[in-house]
Request: fold
Amino acid sequence: MAEPGKPKSGLAGLIAALTNNLDEATISSYAHSLAHWDAERTGATSAAFQILDTKAAGLLTHVSMMIAGLGIVAPLLAQHRFEEIVIVCEIIVYLLISIGCLRCLSVRSVEALQHPSIQRELIVKHELYRLCNNATIWFTIIVFASFPIMLSFP
Reply:
């Protein structure tokens, strides 16, 4: 059970929310934290977060399609163990990029909502999105170039 006045977080907070086992102190603290979070955000900051969420969701869609495409192409294209390893490594890289995209979409914890670190979070998400976007562009070019090479491989 959470201490009175202290919001539940992590796994305990998830279990409490799923089982409707939230006490009044947790509910009132959470509402206060959200109000504080909204008060700290300016119109420009809110717009920036929304744009980053939209872009990260679009990038995650592309990454998901590439993972699915590689999974479908793998049995058709891979004739040797080396080619299988290359395709599995390509899927792993896309999975790592998807983790970065999911981090860009992550929701702040209750404790983080109480700190005035909104601008820092915006910078982190922006830079992480930029990294994921560049990695996706370059890695998609590499995957595209690897297909003819693997097809010509004896």
